[in-house]
Write a structure and sequence with these properties.
This protein is α+β, with helices and mostly antiparallel strands and 367 residues long. It contains 14 helices and ten strands.
């Protein structure tokens, strides 16, 4: 007890002198002590059934003994940013310490001065394309566009985008959203085009529209927003959607029908969420400790348990840290090796082309 008190006192002095502790620079013991002094972490927009966040929060509380104040689990990324803005001068329970938002919100929040830079101890194993090089935001997990297949109906499974054009899949293929509005659907069109364009990113949006025009002309495209219910009923036996949603549906449907989730051989496109600490965080050390937990092997594997591929997935696989039983529930790890993480500029350019030209090029009213 005396030993812990000495550490705690040292950490307190560090906090008084510098405001917060940086574990990424070797001060984990001090950071834990400083976070315990703050006593609480405030999070926002973390539903327990999304990416296994229920287990993540429970694991953090058990490991460090901090309270976790959970604000508005159903909030969207925009709501999280507004919560920071609305509580700049508030150190009370409505001020979030940390956020988990879509990729585009990281750079924009940084530009508005809403974020605090911090680099976790495992910073080097986060891909450079998925983080701000000064530490203001960093990718946390991602999904890739995959084929969710009702295997009770579809006997020959499609392995790549070009397969979807075959007569076997007449009246079978749907998107998980309207490509004139849904990011998931837009990225689906982009991914198909990336395959058709043999990896040429600048041509992917145009080629994706051509691909879906062909798919529609052949009678294979179903202009219905694909969901678990339509998959089970056979109305949309193949749905193009994020793999983590498809894998979660597989569990929910419990074999009725049998669901196969296939990452295509080419045109593998990833969608990333990012973490960041509020520049006005009432509990900055607890926030940093939370980041250390999320980006540790332990935290990353909890996200994977919820089928969200942690940003350090390649590093975990390379070091043999992913349990065999967990890998067995996922598509082959090698399927993700070719994943493209489009930049914001690439996403914006593709969105402009796809949303404005879908009606004239493809002519299918998805609803």
């Amino acid at each position: 007890m005396i030993k812990w008190t000495r550490v705690f006192t040292f950490a307190t002095l560090v906090v008084l002198a510098f405001g917060s502790v940086a574990a990424g620079q070797g001060g984990m013991v001090q950071l834990i002590a400083a976070a315990k002094q703050e006593g609480q972490l405030t999070v926002i927009a973390l539903p327990h059934d999304w990416c296994a966040y229920g287990d993540v929060i429970a694991g953090f509380k058990q490991k460090y003994g901090l309270r976790v104040n959970e604000l508005n689990p159903d909030a969207g990324s925009g709501d999280e940013i507004e919560a920071i803005k609305a509580n700049k001068g508030n150190k009370g329970p409505q001020a979030p310490d940390v956020i988990d938002v879509g990729l585009s919100f990281g750079p924009s929040a940084k530009a508005e001065g809403l974020l605090m830079p911090y680099k976790v101890a495992t910073w080097a194993s986060i891909p450079a394309s998925a983080k701000d090089n000064t530490g203001y935001w960093y990718g946390d997990y991602y999904g890739v566009l995959a084929f969710q297949v009702n295997a009770d109906i579809v006997k020959t499974l499609p392995r790549d985008w070009a397969d979807l054009l075959k007569p076997d899949y007449k009246n079978a293929v749907a998107l998980a959203g309207d490509p004139r509005a849904s990011n998931q659907a837009i990225q689906g069109v982009f991914a198909a085009g990336l395959s058709a364009a043999k990896g040429n990113v600048s041509a992917a949006a145009t080629e994706g529209l051509k691909f879906f025009a062909d798919l529609n002309k052949r009678g294979n495209f179903v202009p219905v927003i694909g969901k678990a219910a339509s998959l089970a009923q056979g109305a949309t036996p193949i749905i193009i959607r994020w793999d983590y949603n498809a894998l979660a549906d597989r569990d929910t449907l419990k074999g009725n029908p049998k669901v196969e989730v296939i990452v295509p051989a080419t045109g593998v496109v990833a969608g990333v969420y990012v973490q960041a600490i509020s520049a006005y965080a009432p509990h900055p050390n607890a926030a940093k400790l939370w980041m250390e937990y999320l980006y540790s092997d332990e935290g990353q594997l909890l996200w994977l348990k919820g089928y969200c591929h942690p940003i350090r997935f390649a590093d975990l696989v390379k070091r043999g840290k992913v349990p065999a039983a967990l890998l067995a529930k996922l598509p082959p790890a090698a399927a993700y090796d070719k994943a493209l993480f489009p930049t914001l500029a690439q996403q914006d350019a593709a969105k402009q082309i796809i949303t404005t030209q879908w009606d004239t090029v493809v002519g299918a009213n998805v609803k």
